[in-house]
Amino acid sequence: MLIDAPSPTRTPLRAAIPLLYTVMLFVLFRSAIVFPQGNPGTDFTPIWTAANKYVSGEPVFDSDYTVDMPHYLYTPAGTVLIAPVAIFGSQEVARAVMAAMGALCIIAAIALAVRMVRPQWFHIVFPLAVSFFFITPEPVRSTLALTNINGFLLLLQVLFIWLSLRLREQKAGWLNQFTRPEAWAAGVIAGVALSIKPQFAVLFIVSLAYWQVAVVVVAALVAAALFAVGWFTIAEPELFFTNLVPYLSEPRPRFNGSVSGLGIVLQWPGALVTVLTLFVIATALGAVAAMWRWKDTDPVLFTFVATGVCFAGGFMASGLMQNYYSIWIIPLALTIVGRQSPMRWPITVLILLCMYAHWVWPETGRKTVDVALAYIPSFMFIALPVAVGAWALANRPSEEQQVEAPDNATEANSVHSS
């Protein structure tokens, strides 16, 4: 009698894959469908209002910005891009569609990022990553509950990096880059992202690292074209500069975790705010410089980490930072499954957990302490570039050491034997 040998591919780890996807579906149902329906979607209301004003020819930037309420904060270019939400018959339908599309964009971004970091482990890492990011209070669940466009921007971020790295593989000179479709696609994506949030200029750290001039040129042209379209099609566009820009130039006193926002809440002197602002900029740039050695040896690690720390430093140095901005640090967090990453350091793991857990601390009765505890995620945005820079300096590869992507066969064997 012949006895069939057990299949080498049916390891306990692979057998758990269906369970992982089942858990992921339950988490998605609760976080992407049930949870948003029980929340007001306060970020979506100004988007809906602005889109309808735009298509009906009414002024978009005529709000009373002295009133403390959610305001529409996008440029004329961004208004052109969000205007299609007005085609839906009601705000409820439009919000449901936007929340669903935002969830799909976040899932797609995580899937692509996981493929880039560890393709052979995709069916294990992907459901675990989706479950984790959709079940934690920040940033995905709040993004969907408030119903903003951050999920779309996350997908644009990951697509931009993927296209930039594909362009890098072509080894084309800066002039020949204009003949490559990857350069045009990456430039269009960056131009769209810039038009919605100017802070997405930090993506150009990737273009600088690989000297992708064509990407920057195309992005600038796209952003300028979209701004021109918005300027000439919006009623009373000058209100953007007379009403909205002055409001954006002043830090918001509430729901603002940037250095300037913390300065208002904690009553820091102006000198301390200035010093801390310069500090977060310097540490973010220092972390990128410390990671520079990985630019060619592990480009996925470098680009995910560099953009992550630049987002952290950039938002803290700007006039507004909210906890769900940590959504653009998800690619950095996913590098934990790579062969090496600053995210494998316990300190950075703790920093990310403090960002995403959004713990509610018990009242101490001391206002300063209670406020400081409430703003712990903001302090983690300051700590992240510092920790990444320290890790990079402590783990710098030698000149001869090459940190290349693992061989597919070797990686697959490691999955089978786990």
From TrEMBL:
Signal peptide: none
Positions of the UniProt region annotated as Disordered: 399-418
Topology versus the membrane: Multi-pass membrane protein
One GO location term (cellular component): plasma membrane
Localization (cell): Cell membrane
One GO molecular-function entry: hexosyltransferase activity
Keyword hit for Ligase: no
Domain of life: Bacteria
Sorted UniProt keywords: Cell membrane, Membrane, Transferase, Transmembrane, Transmembrane helix
InterPro entries in alphabetical order: GT87
Membrane spanning residue stretches: 12-33, 71-89, 96-114, 120-136, 143-163, 183-206, 213-234, 268-292, 299-317, 345-361, 373-394
Keyword Transmembrane: yes
Family from the record: Belongs to the glycosyltransferase 87 family.
Protein name: DUF2029 domain-containing protein
Organism: Corynebacterium meitnerae
